[in-house]
Amino acid sequence: MGMSEQPSTRTRRGRAIAVYGLLVVAPVLLTVGLLVGGDGGGTATTAVETVAGHPLAHLLLAIAVVVAACKLVGALLQRIGQPPVIGEIAAGILLGPSALGAAWPEGAAALFPPSVLPELNALAQVGVVLFVFLTGLELNTRLLRGKGHLAVVVSHVSIAVPFLLGVALAVFAYTRFAPEGIGFLAFALFFGVSLSVTALPVLVRILQDVGLLRTEVGVVALTCAVVDDVTAWTLLAVVVALVTASSMTGVVVTLVLAAVFIAFLLLVARPLLERLARRTSESALRKLAPLALVGVLLCAMSTEWIGVHAMFGAFMFGLVFPRDNAAESWLRQNTGGLTAAVLLPLFFAYSGLRTDIGLLADGGLWLWCAAIVFVAVVGKLGGAAIAARSVGETWNRSLQIGTLMNCRGLTELVVLNVGLQLGVLSPTLFTMLVLMALISTAMAAPLATWFARREGTLVEVPRQRRSSRLPVPRP
User: Fold this and answer.
1) pTM
2) What pLDDT is recorded for position 122?
3) Which CATH number does the domain 120-465 belong to among 1.20.1440.20, 1.20.1530.20, 3.90.1150.10, 3.40.50.300?
4) Between the CA of residue 471 and those of 201, 207, 217, 324, what are the distances in Å?
5) What does the alpha-carbon distance between residue 215 and residue 459 come to, in Å, rounded to a whole number?
6) Where are the domains of the chain?
7) Which residues lie below 8 Å from residue 182, measured CB to CB, with a gap of 6+?
8) Predicted local distance difference test score (pLDDT) of residue 262
9) Which of 5, 186, 218, 399 is 20 to 30 A (C-alpha) from 225?
């Protein structure tokens, strides 16, 4: 785009944000104020009681506030070079006890009463299942061609080093932060997995935003992230099996059933789906595409029943689903849009409602939080950089790759919520790890841009032409 078009683009974006704030955010905040204040605060027949008597109305109000807050804060942070997911996660925290609950307890209680939370959680879990399916769908194994040795070395080192450092830190954290009844093995393994995650969808967005998607370092980072994602979800499934099984026999049975499920998808479901995709016309595939969501839900249900969490089944189904056809395009456009626009903001909000920064009021807890961030960043960034250097990359590129692999984002929140749901993480430790995810993800774009400028590989990409789809970059 020419330079003359840039100011008008910025002006249009500014106007859009202003209109959104005026016509969406302001009315929502006014509505919440009326709900809490009623007719002056004196009578019992306030708007709170009116909405409380209509559960659907209350749920819809909560959804409207969540979506508006996530999109507004996401847009604001995007203007300073951060991916929107950072703002959306931050908005979720702001809606919880850390900000809104502390500054305006009555408003928080009116907006998110206990009766609404289970419904928000149910919708959020559906969003997570669809997100994980789309993550599997985004994985492009063609990126592995010719780079398999580099991808395996860098991705596995970038998992192993923070995992081992996390287990070592868990030795000291166990007595202080482990919930009652949780054994050291489950606590340490989950702690290690929490420090080992890379968020592939957020990584793609960062590469797009800083103009590295079609560079050689972008291809390397994406290749490593593909292997990292598969390994991390598999590790999470194993840890969940260890936590939920009541005995070692139960662990073995769970893992065997999970292996049978994977074999069925790879050896039976994938060939059948690929044959169907080849033999069916594009128009017919587009009509059949919604049935793929039935497959997602059934696979998620199967692994939830097996004991390795619903997300693993959704991810595996996305991994085996045929690419480059009308059904995939329909799923990416329709399911992806609904998930990103509505369901994932609910997940951010629900995570924020479980994140209470006030729990870290003790100065010693902030030191623990700093130690977790330090170990996570050094383990992930440093491990990936050293591994990339060992296979022939320059130090500048190696540090770029390490910076990008250190991006955790939404995937980390998914893992942490599983830990909190299973009772492996305490609310205090959950809060620390959420802050670690935010800090490590916020570091990725500025550092990657800095390293790219040092090497002279930065390519400016017009924002209006950026796509959320994971393409096949060429160096």
Assistant:
1) 0.80
2) 92
3) 1.20.1530.20
4) 12, 11, 15, 11
5) 9
6) 5-115, 120-465
7) 423, 424
8) 92
9) 186
